[in-house]
Specification:
Layout (H helix, E strand, L loop, with lengths): L16 H18 L3 H15 L8 E2 L5 E7 L2 E9 L1 H5 L6 E5 H8 L3 E8 L6 E8 L5 E7 L4 E2 L5 E5 L2 E6 L2 E5 L15 E6 L8 E5 L6 E7 L6 E7 L5 E6 L5 E3 L7 E5 L2 E5 L4 E3 L11 E3 L4 E5 H5 L6 E4 L5 E8 L4 E7 L2 E8 L13 E4 L8 E7 L6 E7 L6 E6 L4 E6 L10 E8 L5 E8 L8 E4 L14 H6 L6 E5 L9 H5 L7 H16 L8 E6 L1 H12 L6 E5 L18 H4 L5 H10 L14 E6 L8 H12 L4 E6 L10 H19 L4
Helix pairs in contact: 2-13
């Protein structure tokens, strides 16, 4: 079957009456089959209790005004409230919050299905913001200016119609806008191609174009740093998912290239430029090298240089981190005067604080003091929640594990650390253990995975999940949903750290890129086989779940390794690799998967594309596909067509399409609870029988 022979193309018609009717019929079948029993009702109620719990940690963000901002959803506020408070109040068990915007009240007042998508606050004034709201949870948003003092939208303020927009403040009267300006203004990926500087009180179409990318780029973008003394505007084009071309935009409108590798990620903070490498970089004229010869920095390294000197051509580069075969850079974050570095050692977190020398002082710029970050527990996964570099050197940390609810701590570089909040326990973990094992993939690669469960429950129902793409790592985390709905009922839970992710840096990702994609699938299959070999479960009692790119993983497991699983669940999945680049944002992922219009690329894509490899005669485990009509990232046509093909060829498949929810397949906690209860009920029915 090729693109022109696809008998189910009509299911890509998003709101067409035939396609919509087909989805309604499948929903009715699935709900009748799965939602009528007591177990489903109990699952949904327990999951909803987790999602709406009043004693959850209200994770804050800092915006430079010494206040703690939080967006909160619970039973009384299903769409959520945006609020803020002081540190002293936040320390209290029940803080008094200043509610800035009530999305439920706004939706009722305006008759819109508004879903919160964030806010960009004006710095340094902090009296205005640009609020992004979507209809039904899609990526496309409406942007409206909001007055934080009057707690009201600005009547004649900056406003953008629904689009996949990118906005940033320059000052109180100017913003940089990348949005849909009409025909020719979008890339083939459906994102903005141009950036304009929009002055308050003028019509948007008359805004000055400050940068334009190419139609085949992923997008054009802009950002502005208002730090006093370091005010800078950056513009650029995302060439593909991993490569970009960036410039400093001078006040005179000139563009100065940020001359780093196109696949590097970088940021500027005050005096410093920090560069993270995805591929090796050979640099001539590096300061301190005899004769100024070339130096090659490895993929996965993190470098620092004085910003102004680098743009002027100097190459005073300092290596802040070098990876090895077990350790990789995860991310970094700045306080005002320090750099916090997060790394992974065999998928376990490590955090350090680096203090730079003084740029311009003889011999000092290359000397960075390094020490462990205070407040990081040894045996839990810790992540940096936020810093406030406009204000000082404070930082927020969250530490958790598969069995340990999160603890939120406030630290000060060089100062004390205090515990601010502890999350509640949603399930009894006393009998559970957390173990890390390594499976051996088809090519001999050691693939780590985490196993959580009762060590005495051999051969029991087991849920295996993974992602394996876009350099995104799968990390230890506490899930009340999985705990209540799966672990507490006797199931084991497994997270596989397969290639394609970022667990071991760029090399781990590249090992499963494009034509090497099957390495990720071989890794996942190796983990599944290892679980059986260790006696943890059996193929009939092993289920797998994945979402988005992990949904593609689920589709490949179904069609290539069906004998390994007793049930398969795919959420918002990518499944048709012949047409993915022509559906919504799909063209932006060709750097990850390949170009189906290139015969050489299609040859390997065709080999694993789940939609093209459904075998009528091969036994498949029962399958559940979940998607959303409002997913404007991965088209619901993927799941629709796969369900139709499986049905046509006699396989057992359940299908559920939420009418809203975007790429998360759920727009509120009631919908999230329903989707997860549906997922777990499906898995228990097919995996939870007698051993």
């Amino acid at each position: 079957m090729d693109e022109d022979d696809d008998p189910y193309r009509w299911l890509e018609d998003l709101d067409g009456p035939d396609a919509a009717g087909w989805a309604r019929d499948r929903n009715a079948e699935t709900m009748a089959a799965l939602t009528g029993g007591d177990r489903f009702a109990a699952l949904r109620a327990e999951i909803r209790e987790v999602l709406d719990a009043d004693d959850r940690v209200p994770y804050p963000t800092w915006r430079g005004d010494h206040l703690y901002y939080n967006f909160w959803i619970d039973a009384a506020h299903p769409r959520g409230i945006w609020r803020r408070t002081t540190l002293d109040e936040y320390r209290r068990p029940e803080p008094q919050w200043d509610v800035l915007l009530d999305i439920d009240a706004l939706a009722a007042q305006e008759g819109e299905n508004w879903i919160w998508q964030g806010a960009t606050v004006l710095r340094p004034g902090h009296d205005r913001c640009l609020v992004s709201l979507s209809r039904g949870g899609s990526d496309a948003t409406v942007v409206r200016e909001f007055d934080l003092v009057r707690r009201a939208f600005v009547a004649d303020g900056f406003t953008l119609d629904e689009a996949k927009s990118d906005v940033t403040w320059v000052d109180a009267d100017h913003i940089l806008v990348a949005t849909d300006f009409g025909p020719g203004s979008l890339t083939t990926s459906g994102y903005p191609r141009t950036v304009r500087r929009w002055r308050r009180g003028t019509p948007l179409p008359s805004a000055e174009v400050v940068f334009a990318g190419q139609v085949d780029d992923v997008s054009a973008y802009a950002s502005h740093d208002p730090t006093p003394g370091f005010e800078r505007t950056f513009v650029g084009r995302r060439l593909d998912f991993f490569r970009s071309e960036s410039y400093l935009l001078t006040p005179a409108g000139e563009r100065v290239r940020i001359d780093v590798p196109s696949d590097a990620h970088w940021d500027a903070h005050r005096e410093w430029l920090v560069i993270g490498l995805r591929s090796p970089w050979t640099v001539d004229g590096v300061a301190g090298v005899d004769g100024g010869g070339g130096v090659t920095f490895p993929a996965g390294a993190l470098l620092a240089a004085p910003f102004d000197a680098f743009l002027a051509g100097a190459r005073e580069l300092t290596t802040l981190f070098t990876p090895d075969e077990r350790t990789a850079l995860s991310y970094h974050g700045w306080t005002r005067g320090h750099l916090i570095l997060a790394t992974l050692a065999d998928v376990r977190s490590r955090l350090e604080v680096l203090t730079p020398g003084v740029p311009g002082a003889p011999g000092s710029a290359g000397h960075w003091r390094r020490e462990p970050l205070a407040g990081v527990p040894e045996f839990e996964h810790t992540r940096l929640v936020d810093t406030d570099p406009d204000v000082g050197d404070a930082y927020l940390l969250a530490s958790e594990g598969f069995r340990q609810p999160a603890t939120l701590r406030l630290g000060q570089v060089g100062g004390p650390v205090e515990t601010l909040k502890r999350a509640p326990a949603f399930f009894d973990a006393a009998r559970l253990t957390e173990r890390q094992h390594f499976a051996t993939s088809a090519d001999g690669t050691r693939v780590p995975y985490f196993l959580v469960g009762d060590p005495d429950a051999a051969g029991g129902p087991t849920l295996l999940t993974g992602y394996g793409g876009f350099e995104v790592p799968e990390l230890p985390h506490y899930s009340g949903i999985v705990g209540r709905g799966w672990l507490a009922r006797g199931g084991s839970y497994v997270v596989a750290n397969i290639r394609g992710g970022g667990e071991y840096g760029p090399a781990w990702h590249r090992a499963a890129l494009r034509e090497n994609r099957p390495r990720a699938y071989e890794d996942f299959a190796a983990v599944a086989a290892d679980l059986v070999a260790r006696g943890i479960t059996t193929p009939a009692r092993l289920g797998m779940e994945g979402g988005s790119n992990g949904g593609l993983l689920a589709g490949v497991m179904l069609t290539r390794y069906p004998e390994l699983f007793g049930a398969v669940v795919a959420h918002v999945p990518l499944l048709d690799m012949r047409r993915y680049h022509k559906l919504l944002a799909g063209a932006s992922w060709m750097a990850e998967y390949g170009d189906p219009d290139d015969p050489a690329d299609w040859a390997y894509l065709r080999d694993y594309s789940p939609y093209h490899n459904v075998d009528r005669d091969r036994p498949y485990p029962p399958t559940l596909l979940v998607t959303s009509t409002r997913d404007d990232r991965v088209h619901p046509g993927h799941a629709r067509k796969m369900a139709a093909r499986l049905r046509e060829r006699g396989h057992e498949v359940a299908y559920y399409e939420n009418v809203e929810g975007g790429h998360g397949a759920a727009a509120n906690n009631a919908q999230r609870a329903f989707v997860w209860a549906l997922t777990l009920e499906f898995l228990w029915r097919h995996l939870g029988g007698p051993a």
